[in-house]
Amino acid sequence: MTGRNGYDAYEGAGELLRALAAPIRLAIVSELAQGERCVHELVEQLGAPQPLVSQHLRVLRGAGVVRGSRRGREIAYALVDEHVAHIVADAVSHAGEGTRT
Fold first, then answer.
1. Largest CA distance in the chain
2. Does residue 2 have a pLDDT over 60?
3. Quick check: helix, strand or coil at residue 64?
């Protein structure tokens, strides 16, 4: 690690985890792990209102987790890095393990 006392990587990880902190954002990342999706496809899959999905996509885009590319009249969203999908899948799996005793 480099930078101020070697914490730059931890700060970046903290920002990523804050961006993923909302359950709907975790669900969006899980959906995008399957491939590109337009907003209407995410709305249909998640059962969430379009403005809410768009707002959370904006947060994920701002954090550099997703990118959008124009597909005709729509924007198709995709994960920037597949590592994020693994982080989310592991977190969801771990949370499920916590319910078993």
1. 50
2. no
3. coil
